[in-house]
Amino acid sequence: MRLLGAVGGGDVVNVLIDGVEDPSPPVRLAAIRALGQIRHAASIEPLIALLGAASQMSKRNLAQALVSFGPDIHPFLIRILQDGLSNTESVAGEPHHLSTIIEVLALSGDIEAMPEIRLALQSTHMEVRIAAFKAIALLHIPLTSKEIIRGLKDEQWPVRAQAATVAGKIRADGVLDQLGE
Fold it and tell me: Residue 142: how many CA atoms within 13 Å on its side-chain side?
């Protein structure tokens, strides 16, 4: 699979796309990495389709493969994020999908996704809120005191931990004073 990724070409892309559905995890991982190396447009949708069913290791490899496509993929990812946040019943609205897409946008340094990432803070899914706070910390997205306080008072401790990280990174002066209110 790695050799196929180095070679590229339309037929190779189709073989690799089939490889991402192989029953063997090592074959799937190799196919994902190879598609990230080739960066062929036809492989974007199959890679994104894998997000919901991916293991943690595959998810990291999928994120890296998608990041390798660069800024050309960002509008597509932002559209999927918007759809997923507004329609949580769809496949795009699954927490694994949303959190990985947020991670890819953050790793890519895409500040254009700032409104959607801030909107993800209101998700009903803890995993999505955590991903949003991680992205905000990475991208240094400015938040209101109200948004930070909501995160610091979240019922789930992992969200509170990420909100605290954001508060420290963006130097959220005045938030501590408001926490007591």
Answer: 2
